[in-house]
Amino acid sequence: MAEALRLEGVRKAFGSLEVLRGIDLALAEHEVACLIGASGSGKSTLLRCVNLLEPIDAGRIFLSGQEITAPGVDVNRVRRRVGIVFQAFNLFPHMSVLANVTLAPRKVLGLPKAQAEAEAVALLDRFGLADKRDEFPDRLSGGQQQRAAIVRALAMRPDILLLDEVTSALDPELVGEVLDVIRELAASGMTMLIATHEMGFAREIARRVFFLEKGVILEEGPPELMFSSPRQERTRQFLERIIRAGRL
Amino acid sequence: MAVASTLVFAFLVVVGITRSPGYGELERYFFDWERYGDSFPEIADAFLLNVKIFSIAEAVILVSALGLAVLRSLPGPVFFPLRALAILYADFFRGVPTILVILMLGSGMPALQVAWVPKDQVFWAIVSLVLVYTAYVSEVYRAGIESVHPSQDAAARSLGLTRWQSLRYVVIPQAVRRVVPPLLNDFIGLQKDTALVSVLGVVEALRQSQINEAASFNGTYYLVAATLFVALTIPLARLTDWLIARDRRRRQAAGVAA
Q1: Closest by Cα among B202, B177, B179, B195 to B232
Q2: Which chain B residues contact residue A135 at CB under 8 A?
Q3: Interface touch A156/B159, C-beta < 8 Å
Q4: Residue A23's closest CA among A47, A38, A7, A36?
Q5: Residue among A90, A93, A156 whose CB faces B174 most closely
Q6: B151 to chain A: which residues are within 8 Å by CB?
Q7: What whole-number distance in Å separates Cα of residue B46 and Cα of residue A220?
Q8: Are the C-beta atoms of residues A51 and A129 closer than 8 Å to each other?
Q9: Contacts with B253 from chain A: Cβ below 8 Å
């Protein structure tokens, strides 16, 4: 299978705080992988680096074989191909759902308004938000907002979708509808890198799981193997805490 | 209770003033209702110049102040000279008294006798007010821009929007909505400051009142000018309230209306 994403020795520090300390990771096209690990282990930073929202200090990142961290690369062009969805949704509160979804296709890709809206409506319909197109974000439930945010990222037809703890800010009864969206995307072949605390979901959806600890990938493997017989002591401790919290 | 105490308080103030020894003279000086009625059209006519001055100035300031605020919010070392210039500008024009700027530009520039430099004092009065108020209003805009959470910009940039597109479509629209009340507050200040143009001898409402007062030694004309200024700021204050309420309504009723 062709390679969608590869990170080589990626390092990132904020001041004296080293958040990523040499990350190597590769993702095949249509692959779904999950990043797990405690808060502060570097999951969000890793995803933000792939989207180039954070410049990396060392290492290289490749998208479909092309290096996107090389000097002179147009970050705006890269970001068109890398969708990211945030924990806090970050919808634009002054725009309707439809305007949220069509903004980037119109302004970045230059699609005519009618075409952008037709595509947006089709996506909103696919994810059960057709009747919410004219609503403003603060009129939607958290689950609806997050689904709208996913649709907004999808509207750019990205090659890869990065999901940063997209259910962590949701009420428990709203988590399911967002996970359903991700399941559907996985089934449709979307390449996804998912940072999550939903271990049950990770086990179900991911082909591979990466356990992040203090800025390095401590362990990786198929979820059924890692969750039942982790090789590293730290992974085992982390999973034990998760099980005690009732999340697996 | 609130009504009763207010009435008692107002009564005491009115009695206190009208019973004071010099009140008779004060009343004749300021409250000559015949002069008030007679001079109203003339001063109102002069007031149109105030309206013209602040209307033009406000339209320009809305744009120029936003431009200055954007300059100041440009990130990175590359833009340091522009940021420094913007800061220098804001510091200078917030520091110099408005009346001095009006005097210097209004009397200085026409005196240059350069063919392409306008000699119209009203023009330079408008320029002065624009220069001073751009400095103030840009601070209001800047506060608004900085109040928009960085995650909004991140969301926009993550979709491939350029820094400028993110500002234009995501950050500034939210910033402007938030600063409408303080913005209009500055404009109320500007409307009043158009009276400062009188130092140039330009016959606007205050200057016209001064002329009338000098000819009659009666201050009722100032009361006329005051009435006109107040009459104009009240609608602006109500407009501010209405804009805020409309924005809130729109968000809450969205979907129903559309």
Answers
A1: B195
A2: 254-255
A3: yes
A4: A7
A5: A93
A6: 86, 88, 90
A7: 80
A8: no
A9: none
Q: Is the dihedral of CA B45, B201, B191, B56 positive or negative?
A: positive
DSSP string computed for A202-246 = HHHH-SEEEEEETTEEEEEE-HHHHHHS-SSHHHHHHHHHHHHTT
Using a CB-CB cut-off of 8 Å, the residues of chain A touching B254 are 96, 134-136, 139
Taking an 8 Å cut-off on Cβ atoms, the answer to whether B155 and A77 are in contact is no
Residue A207 and residue A211: Cα distance in Å, rounded?
Answer: 13
| Residue in B180, B177, B183, B207 with CA at minimum distance from that of residue B53 | B207
Neighbour count for residue B167 (Cβ, 10 Å): 20
Residue numbers of chain A with a pLDDT score lower than 70? 1, 247-248
Shortest CA gap B153–chain A (Å): 9
Given this model, what pLDDT does residue B24 score?
81
Is B254 within 8 Å of A135 when comparing Cβ atoms?
yes
Q: Are strands A160-164 and A208-213 parallel, antiparallel or unpaired?
A: unpaired
Q: Cα separation of A239 and A36, whole Å?
A: 10
Cβ-based contacts of A92 with chain B (< 8 Å): 152, 155-156, 170, 174
Nearest residue on chain A to B173, alpha-carbon basis: A94
Give pLDDT, residue B118.
Answer: 86
pLDDT, tens digit, 9 for 90 and up, residues B118-164: 888 999 999 999 999 999 999 999 999 999 999 999 999 999 999 99
pTM for this structure?
0.85
Tokens 């904020």 belong to: A14
Task: Report, as ranges of residue numbers, the positions in chain B whose pLDDT lies below 50.
Answer: 255-258
Closest-CA distance, A214 to chain B, in angstroms, reads 24
Instruction: List, as one string, the DSSP characters of B87-116.
Output: HHHHHHHHHS-HHHHHHHHHHHHHHT--TT
**pLDDT tens-digit readout, A163-216:** 999 999 899 889 999 999 999 999 999 999 999 988 889 999 999 999 999 999
Pairing, β A58-63 against β A3-14: antiparallel
**Closest residue, chain B, to A86 (C-alpha):** B155
Out of B155, B165, B177, name the one closest to residue A90 (CB). B155
Nearest CB to B255: which of A51, A90, A135? A135
β-strand partners of A154: none
Cβ-based neighbour number of residue A16 at 10 Å:
5
Residues in chain B: 258
Angstrom distance (rounded) from CA A135 to CA A132: 5
Q: Got the DSSP string for A206-217?
A: -SEEEEEETTEE
